[in-house]
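Q: Please design a sequence for this.
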């Protein structure tokens, strides 16, 4: 399935590149457009080789989304081709109408080359950007499949549980993991109280990753009889979140939209249990809303809630212990992380020139894990030194993009 989608995109690129090369009316546009298309094809061929080597099932949600985005790129390329061909047909028809004789019309029409639309170069560059992102995403998907199975329990359309992750893909978080585990396992809450441990840090610093490490640790699994994981984000609707928490810890769908009913059921489920709940990416700043969400947890024997958030103010509203501040990686750990994503499955000694450039790129990330993974993933299929230098010289915020 993935191979077929990739093949259709590559075929569309070949057709459009051939069409552009035939046109003479846009010589200023042709070189950059064809060059972008050639680079597009090169990237896709590398992904295709990786897909063919992978035995990953295409049935999971992340890969389906990835494939659908590639299909959109194929349609966009075909649309550019059809638009250009349509303009060429129109120019030919107008020339036939203006020529005085059939012989003259045929001679003129054979030489007619309709110019490409002015926005074609921009469209091609935008498609190339999307395909570069697809390459990064496939690298992450493929790495996860090869070296640590990622799993989701999904019922009712909610993200319910933490990911199983391979710790070999996490660098520089050993001490952070142990520190948070100590906080979670500490005997600091009474039967009718909820202990809340906030993990605070900038976007992309690894808060969710740290929470995953804690959530899946064997000591945590043995200590807590019930666990749950809910991604919150900006929509802090108590009814929705209560239902998602209930679905997460029971593994069963829940259709109720009545808060009182949901809270009553949750209290019954938690009665006498030792609960660990992770609420990932919380933005809520209303203390009353938070108190309402936490009210059913009093029925549990023990309730520990790990919260990840970017905002100190949010953490202070919820905290029962001092928020755990997660900092950037050291330069050495950041380089190790970048190296893993950029060279995984390859022999870096085959390209010693890229090692030096890569170290400079990693230093430019200033210990930001998201940047190291994103840029390393972008370059994983790339052996052209100039492409690495482009990343090195580019603006970091633009290269990484808008991040949650």
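A: Design:
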């Amino acid at each position: 399935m993935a191979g077929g989608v990739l093949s259709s995109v590559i075929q569309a690129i070949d057709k459009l590149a051939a069409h552009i090369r035939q046109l003479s009316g846009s010589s200023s546009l042709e070189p950059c457009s064809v060059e972008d298309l050639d680079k597009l094809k090169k990237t896709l061929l590398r992904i295709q080789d990786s897909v063919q080597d992978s035995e990953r099932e295409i049935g999971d949600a992340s890969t389906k989304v990835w494939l659908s985005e590639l299909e959109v790129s194929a349609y966009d390329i075909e649309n550019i081709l059809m638009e250009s061909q349509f303009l060429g047909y129109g120019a030919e028809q107008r020339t036939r109408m203006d020529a005085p004789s059939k012989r003259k019309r045929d001679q003129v029409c054979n030489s007619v080359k309709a110019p490409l639309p002015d926005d074609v170069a921009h469209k091609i560059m935008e498609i190339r950007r999307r395909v570069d992102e697809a390459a990064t995403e496939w690298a992450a998907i493929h790495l996860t499949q090869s070296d640590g199975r990622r799993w989701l329990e999904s019922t009712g359309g909610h993200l319910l549980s933490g990911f199983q992750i391979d710790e070999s893909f996490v660098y520089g978080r050993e001490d952070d993991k142990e520190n948070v585990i100590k906080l979670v396992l500490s005997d600091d809450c009474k039967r009718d109280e909820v202990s809340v441990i906030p993990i605070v840090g900038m976007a992309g610093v690894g808060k969710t990753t740290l929470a995953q490490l804690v959530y899946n640790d064997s000591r945590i699994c043995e200590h807590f009889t019930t666990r749950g994981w809910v991604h919150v984000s900006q929509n802090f609707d108590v009814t929705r979140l209560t239902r998602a928490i209930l679905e997460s810890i029971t593994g069963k769908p829940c259709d109720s939209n009545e808060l009182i009913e949901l809270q009553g059921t949750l209290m019954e489920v938690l009665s006498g249990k030792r609960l660990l709940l992770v609420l990932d990416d919380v933005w809520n700043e209303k203390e009353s809303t938070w108190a309402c969400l936490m009210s059913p947890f009093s029925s549990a024997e023990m309730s520990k809630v790990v919260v990840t958030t970017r905002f100190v103010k949010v953490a202070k509203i919820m905290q029962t212990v001092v928020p755990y501040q997660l900092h950037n990686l050291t330069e050495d750990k950041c380089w190790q992380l970048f190296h893993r994503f950029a060279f995984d499955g390859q022999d870096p000694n085959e390209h010693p020139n890229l090692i030096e450039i890569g170290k400079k790129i990693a230093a430019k990330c200033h210990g930001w894990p998201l940047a190291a993974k994103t840029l390393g993933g972008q370059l994983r299929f790339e052996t052209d030194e100039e492409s690495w230098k482009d990343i090195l010289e580019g603006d970091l915020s633009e290269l990484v993009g808008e991040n949650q």
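Q: Thanks. Anything notable?
A: The two ends are 30 Å apart (CA to CA). The chain has 17 helices and seven strands.
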